[in-house]
Structures are given as C-alpha cells and as structure tokens.
C-alpha cells in the first residue's frame, strides 16, 4: 500500500544518506542513546511552533491519516505490555482531530483511506506468511477481506486506484553475489556469499568493502483481486540493493517502478525511475542522473511527479512531468530532504529535512543536527520552516496535510521513548488557497 511504501522508503533513504553507507548496512547500526530530555520539554518545543501532542499511549503510535472531512485521524497503535516490551498485536484506531475519543477499530497496520473506506493489512494468525488486506467503513463496520497473499512470494503489493487489481513483485536468486566497494563500484562473483565471504575479511576490516550479498532479480506481476488473470509485466529487474516497489498512477493507466542498473563498463550502480503501461507495454526510463532516483509521488491532479534524487551524498527533491520531461530541482539543502507530501490543492509541497552529518542510531547526538518540517511552492520558491527539532529529542516521521490544508499531522520518533502523533498548525500563507486565518 502507498503509506507502507512511502514509510519504508523514506526511512531507508534517510538513514542510508546519514550514515554514508548503502541501505542494507542498517543492520550494523547501534541502538539509540537515551538523553536526559523529558517528554514535557519535547512537547513545549513543538508547542512553540504551533504543534500539539495527540497520543499518549505507552506503546508506539504511527502512520496517521485524515478522514475526508478532517474531523478524525486514523492511525496504527501497539500496546505496551511492560518491561520495555511491546505487544505483537497492532491495531487500527481512530480519534478526533484534537486527540480525544480514541477507539480501536480492527487488528491491523498501515491504514489507507480511499473513497470513504479504510484499507489496512495484517498477518494471518495461523499462516503467518500470509499478508491479508481488508477494507472497512470509517466506523469499523462492514469488514471485507480483499487479498490474502504469501508475502514471501508476493512482495510490495499495490492495489490499483479502482480497487480491482493488485500489482506485486517476485524475488529469485541468480547464483551469484555482489560486492559494493567504497570507490562506488559493484563487482559480481559467481558463487555463494555465505561460503566465499571470508576471503573479503581484509577488505571489510579496512573499510574498502561496504557490503555484499546474493544477487537477486525481480519480476513485476499484476492480477485481479480474486487472483485470476495473472500477467507478468516485467522480468529480470536487478533487486539486490533496491526492490522495484511498483506504484500505480492516479488514473490506473500506468505503473511506475524503480530499476537499479549496474553499468557493465564502470561497474557503478544507478537507481532510476521507470514507467510502463498497466499491461506492461511501453516501458520507459524517466530519470538518468548518476546515483539514486526513487520515491515518485504524484500531484493531486496527476500532472506532476515529485521524487528523491541523490546529489553528492544527500537527497534533494525534484519534480518532473509523468513522461520524464520538465525536470526541476526543488531543494538544495546540505541535509537529506524527503518525506514530501503535496497539499490538497497541489500548490505547495511539505517535506522533512534532516541533517546529513548525524543520524538517530549513533553513540552521540549533536543539537546542531536537526529534523525539520518545511513547505514550499511547487517551483521550489517561498520555502518556510514550520518546525525544527534537534536530534537529541528524536526525528520527525511521515507528514500528511489535513483536507483543508490548515494543519499537518505527523509521527515523531523520540530518542528516549515510544512513537507519538502530533498535529501542527500551518500558517495561512502555506494553507490551501482560500483558507484565511483571522
């Protein structure tokens, strides 16, 4: 689902940039250091910028989305069962826009609102590899199962806008492994990394080798929600370092995906955005800059796409037309800009900016390194800073505009406790056209 894809991609990209290593080196990161900072200090800091804490659950609360009328917020919540442990149960809950009247609606995660319905996922309690997608009314009634697919064989499932088809990926090995080097090149060797890995010990210890792992490829498939009419749309996509993560265009006529390519001549890996028709025809490469281009996000009217593009070890936000023309760079900050979200009328873009010389999971945190929410016009002008939080407090998660553009709801990942949800007032100049504050 869209929310899940954006959340995972944003976290991986930001942490990858901040640590100056490739994405799959995340497993080596250290646990966060607890700072002598209280919850009230954080709340006061956010309140000074017009923000309010909405959730107080001892367990984590995240993935907030607005109801169509802006009076409710749906989110996922997980109970705290004591001793610093969280329950394996995750719930879809709803609350009023001021944080009151919290109600659990269903077991599940990753809520997405579409046409007045709530779509969500959960793992089958018996067959734990099955990822189940259900839909329900806004009050939790009329639950209906849409999909039940093995996530190991049906990865990155994306339901079409008309809710009749699902696009997904399959993974398979090639019998080779890849080695990523500090100089930016990638080498390919025939064999099994688990057997051959010891011969790279010196390179690993010297820092010349960044990481290594099995070479994997992906195919992209589409089928009806009842699992009929299965069609392969693309095959043999290099996926060792970045999966394709297919996404539908708003009109359901196109499918966008990520395609990593390792140059046979230079052995340097580029990750680009591609598009194809919903039937697999007319495949076209949309980006071709060196490095990583990923995370395409459509404007509300479907005429523009914002995306992340690597620039000298950090990510900036770019914009292009759906056919790849008209590319414009919107941000040029020294940090990592990501987590972007179009406002409802498509005139402004909000985004999260984080320092590139520090990250959450490290031994020390510098108050000069910050996590911030900015807004800008769609041509990159009139940038406004709405919220700035130093790293010792934690980092800002995903953001979402309210339907009238007057507020943003966001998740916050504190460096000392559980995830919480906050709401932030947006100045009238940054809100949707026609909304005027007194």
Q: Mind summarizing the main beta sheet?
A: 5 strands, antiparallel
CATH superfamily: YVTN repeat-like/Quinoprotein amine dehydrogenase
Number of strands: 31
State the share of residues found in helices, binned by percent. Answer: under 10%
| SS summary, helix count | 4
The backbone outline, from C-alpha atoms, is globular
Q: Radius of gyration in whole Å, from Cα?
A: 22 Å
CATH-derived architecture: 7 Propeller
Overall tally of domains: 1
Mean pLDDT across all amino acids = 83
CATH topology: Methylamine Dehydrogenase, Chain H
Protein name: Tol-Pal system protein TolB
InterPro entries: 6-blade_b-propeller_TolB-like, WD40
Pfam families: PD40 (PF07676), Tricorn_N (PF26549)
Family: Belongs to the TolB family.
Short précis:
With 438 residues, the protein is mainly β. It has helices spanning 2-19, 39-47, 193-196, 201-206; strands at residues 51-53, 61-66, 72-77, 80-82, 85-86, 91-96, 103-107, 109-114, 117-123, 130-136, 144-150, 155-159, 165-181, 186-190, 209-224, 231-238, 247-248, 254-262, 269-277, 284-285, 293-298, 305-310, 315-320, 328-329, 336-342, 348-354, 370-377, 384-390, 394-401, 407-414, 420-425.
């Amino acid at each position: 689902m869209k929310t899940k894809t954006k959340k995972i991609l944003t976290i991986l990209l930001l942490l990858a940039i901040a640590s100056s290593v490739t994405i799959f080196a995340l497993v080596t990161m250290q646990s966060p250091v607890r700072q002598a900072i209280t919850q009230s200090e954080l709340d006061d800091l956010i309140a000074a910028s017009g923000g309010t804490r909405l959730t107080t659950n001892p367990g984590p609360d995240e993935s907030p989305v607005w109801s169509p009328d802006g009076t409710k917020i749906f989110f996922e919540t997980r109970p705290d069962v004591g001793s610093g442990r969280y329950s394996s149960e995750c719930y879809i809950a709803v609350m009023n826009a001021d944080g009151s009247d919290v109600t659990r609606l269903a077991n599940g995660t990753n809520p997405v609102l579409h046409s007045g319905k709530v779509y969500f996922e959960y793992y089958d309690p018996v067959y734990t590899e099955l990822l189940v997608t259900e839909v329900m009314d806004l009050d939790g009634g009329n639950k209906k199962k849409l999909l039940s697919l093995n996530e190991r064989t049906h990865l990155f499932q994306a339901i079409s806008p008309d809710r009749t088809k699902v696009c997904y990926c399959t993974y398979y090995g090639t019998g080779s492994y890849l080695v990523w080097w500090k100089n930016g090149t990638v080498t390919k060797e025939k064999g099994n990394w688990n057997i051959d890995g010891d011969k790279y010990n010196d390179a690993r210890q010297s820092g010349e080798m960044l990481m290594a792992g099995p070479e994997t490829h992906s195919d992209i498939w589409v089928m009806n929600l009842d699992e009929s009419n299965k069609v392969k749309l693309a095959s043999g996509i290099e996926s060792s370092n970045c999966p394709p993560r297919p996404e539908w265009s708003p009109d359901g006529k196109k499918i966008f995906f990520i395609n990593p390519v390792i140059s046979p001549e230079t052995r340097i890996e580029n990750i680009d955005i591609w598009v194809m028709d919903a039937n697999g025809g007319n495949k076209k490469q949309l980006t071709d800059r060196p490095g990583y281009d990923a995370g395409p996000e459509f404007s509300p009217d479907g005429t523009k796409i914002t995306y992340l593009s690597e620039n000298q070890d950090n990510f900036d936000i770019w914009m292009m037309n759906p056919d790849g023309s008209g590319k414009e760079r919107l941000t040029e900050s020294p940090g990592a800009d990501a987590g972007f979200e179009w406002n409802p009328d498509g005139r402004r873009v909000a985004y999260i900016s984080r320092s590139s010389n520090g990250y959450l999971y490290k031994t020390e945190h510098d108050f000069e390194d910050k996590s911030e929410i900015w807004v800008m016009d769609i041509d990159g002008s009139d940038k406004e800073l709405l919220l700035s939080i130093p790293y010792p407090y934690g980092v800002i998660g995903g953001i979402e505009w309210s339907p009238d553009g007057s507020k943003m709801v966001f998740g916050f990942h504190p460096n000392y406790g559980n995830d919480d949800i906050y709401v932030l007032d947006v100045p009238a100049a940054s809100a949707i056209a026609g909304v005027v504050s007194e």
